[in-house]
Amino acid sequence: MKFTCNKSDINEAINIVLKAVPGKTTMPILECVVIEAADDELKLTTNDMSLGIETRLSANIEEEGIILVNAKMISEIIRKLPDEDIYFESDSNENILLFCGKAKFNLSGKNHEEFPMLPKIEKEKKIVISQFTLKEMIRQTIFSISNNENNKILTGELFEINGDEFKIASLDLHRVSIRKIQLKESYGDIKAVIPGKTLSEVSKILTGGMEDEVEIFFTKNHVLFELGKTIIISRLIEGNFYNINQMLTNDYETKVTVNKRELLNCIDRATLLLREAENKPVIMNVKNDEIKMEMNTKIGSMDENIGIQKEGKDLRIAFDPKFLIDVLRVIDEEEVNLYLFNAKAPCFIRDDNSYIYLILPVNLIDN
Predict the structure, then answer these.
(1) Which of 57, 135, 226, 362 qualifies as a cystine partner to 206, CB 3.0-4.6 A?
(2) Which pLDDT tens digit goes with each residue over 173-212?
(3) How far apart are CA 318 and CA 342, in angstroms?
(4) Distances in Å between the alpha carbon of 50 and those of 19, 195, 203, 284?
């Protein structure tokens, strides 16, 4: 195999496929990247058995071929090479010769035949969405997935398509995050639970362009994201997701409309009194036309009043401040609506057209 390619192009491609290289594994072959040269194009492939990535880039191919090389090693070498074209050559014994400027490397490659190549995906059930929209929907929901591997279904996000409505949902038994949009076209009904790790890596690869689209294909066991010259294949999480609709209600005793930035900044200031690993709630006293925010910790205490518009009853309720901060940071609107029932019932922060967030309160008696 012999080829010449642009350093910047191959460096970008390797950074993409590195996202499917495991940090720790008992299978050293999974730490490698497959480099295949054919038809004036390089194809780079990695696979950690649950997430696989393949990307392509243009190259001047003198001799076609395929080889396996340690992904992190080749990434570090290419990253530190001068900004010139790279000449790459491998022989029948998997020896690799790499030239760039005055730098020359001799490396040991591996036979690619034992590497688990990506599965073939039937491109039947699919949706098309802008990269910007998908990236935003992931950002606005992924923080509330669970990291408890004992309840695997909660470590992923539910993708649900009904006609032209696309909904992403996540929950960790303390909170629920739901984002939904209207698609440009109508599709058949689809439900799939995609691992949070996959979506985190997909989000990093998405360009975020409004005009750039991503095609998402669904099978019984896999999901495939296709964007430009890159494809990402992931296993789905098996099992039935929680029935989120049963958790939602439109009933409330108190509705609070408040400036999002003021509320976020106030809670953020309150957390300055928290020591690491200290678990203290922020208390909200909703009365008349203001919320009195309180925080009491071993370091000290604070209180601050925020002006609001209120409908319904006065209320005293407490929350984990991190849960509120996570939600408020991903809402773009200037004002938010909080729907409350009592001190032990969930708080809903919602705009019924695009998002619903549910947060369970903290028991004030215990604090």
Answers:
(1) 135
(2) 899 999 999 999 999 999 999 999 999 999 999 987 788 9
(3) 11
(4) 12, 9, 17, 43
